[in-house]
Fold this sequence. Notes:
Oligomer: single chain
Radius of gyration: 29 Å
Number of helices: 31
Largest sheet: 4 strands, antiparallel
Strand content: under 5%
Number of strands: 6
Strand order of the largest sheet: 2-4-1-5
Amino acid sequence: MILSGLLTSVAINFALCVIFFTLYSILSKQPGNYKVFIPRLLAEGMASVRRPRQFHLSRLLPTAGWIKNAWHPTEDQLLAYSGLDAVVFMRIITFSFKVFTIAGFVGIFILIPVNCSGNQLQDVDFINLTNNTLEVFSISNVNNGSDSLWIHLGVVYFVTLITCYFLFSEYKYISSKRIDYFSSSKPQPHQFTILVSNIPVSKGISVGTSVDNLFTENHPDTYLSHVVVHRKSKVWTVAHALKKLYKKIFRIKKASTQHMFTRDGFLNGSNVKVKKDKSREEVRAAFVSFKSRYGAAVALHMLQSNNPTEWRTEQAPEPQDVYWPFFSSTFMRRWISRLVVILSCAFLTIIFLIPVFIVQGLTNLAQLEAYFPFLTSILTISIVSQVITGYLPNLILQMSLKIIPPTMKLLSSQQGYVCNSDIERSACHKVIWFTVWNVFFANVLSASAFGLLSIFLEVKDIPSKLAVSVPAQASFFIAYVVTLGWTSTSSELFRGIPFIISLICKPFTRNSDEVTVPSFPYHKDIPKILFFGLLGFTYFFLAPIIIPFLLIYFALAYIIYRNQMLYVYAPEYESAGKFWPIVHDTTIFSLVLMQFIAFGIFKLKKLPYATSVTLPLPVITLLFNEYCRKRFLPIFCAYSTETLRKKDREDQSQPEMPHLLRQLSSAYQDPALVPQSYSSNHSSLREPLISVAEVR
């Protein structure tokens, strides 16, 4: 791609970002759009939030006040408001920004002048700069055997060491925050509870009796109570149908000027209680509670039976985080489900190669003209060719990638995870590796599907083949950052789909006070940030021109995601920072990939001594990773005896502890089996609400 094609893509996406910012600034001030742009504030009924009583012209003018409001809260305030997971997410962005600010400074001011001084491809035409190909700014333009390549090697070492230092600091900081978060938390049911599954049951003995017998005998001093899980798919269906029926009747009654129902007891100021049949089939699983956190931890990590497939234990999630459909799965069914999910992911990966090959075909004008000769006359128009090669391929790829996060989350939900947070972390893993394989490797090695497969069958040739292919795709990935980074993140601020849905539904829900507050999609956004990090590590020494575009993305992401966490998203669960190990491992992978490509580049550039000096880098990086895994990862798997004992001693004098222990048995009652109470006299949201001038 020539520089003018990239500039066309940048101009289009910059214009889209400005449009999204302008629309958001204006539309978010309109009271009718509060449910779209500030649903969390509405649902929480903020006391300081008021609707404007009079119309002001400022409501129709775009302003930047929302940026100040998003920037203002400190990390401690964000922690108190949105939890540790939100803090960790924001630190992923700040970590990336710090690393690539340093890498960008080195790349822009040192490496680009070195690259331009070479003439391996062509001399840089400074007079007609926009007609230069982007490769003249990359390492490909440095002459073979040039001593200038030693500068690139030094930069690779420098950025590796800097990244490892920041990784260690972040891992240490987040580990300490995780312990502090636990130590400062109030007593919660999941801290005293474990989940026991695959419970063996003898004939004539119930699941509850088996649980009680085992834990009374083996944990007599700490065992407190248990709750057996029941199969409830039909009950859920009935419960949801009742809830929908209630809401429908309530809306009709509220909108009507006459009393449609005059019979006492039917939505006429009184409650409607629904009792559900509890005589359901027991599942061989139970939530088992203990008198102390330490007692629960001992039972969790002890093997309860000589048969490891029986009496399987795991930490109970928060009650609101439980994924109830899991409990219909047996040990064998879970194992088979995981195998099916792996095969499904592999199939989806192969199928996704089709849009990848289409995208790569669009980036090559000569190939496009060969396949479609009738387009030759159109492709000769400069602006058309620039849009097709610079913007359209990434737009198609972006549209195709939209279905991947929800698909991976659906697949993860079939693997037998006990809670939504585990499902999201599993989906996060899947989306990351799907993106790395299908967006990175498939695009840089997209000559053919067989060529993509053969590279991994010839392991010794991987660095050399990557060294040839990766620099050639620099322009494509710069356009990718601009399209899927700038524009996609700006569209997150605008919330286009929820806004359109609200416009369609507004005539039918004019008097409705119901507000839907979404949870943050970590499985969608964390992989995006980490993949941009991979591109940064890979290209900062190959084509440093990508770094400024990445830094703009991280700056946009920081302010936009803070805004969304404050006003839009509410935490559905709290994993206390368990996403960070995924970030650490992916960053280590990116570093090792960068080092392998550097090895191949120096070999390709006929600088054998530099090739030899590169070899220790992956070893050093992997040893560092192993140290971090030994030092910090256990903290994310379990809390220490020291922490648990200290917390138990502190809570002994707390007046709410006896009440909490009494309520443990009801905390994990299946929602479908708990009597529901519906009342027409409810006002969860109070008007007037929010002042646009104050918030925006």
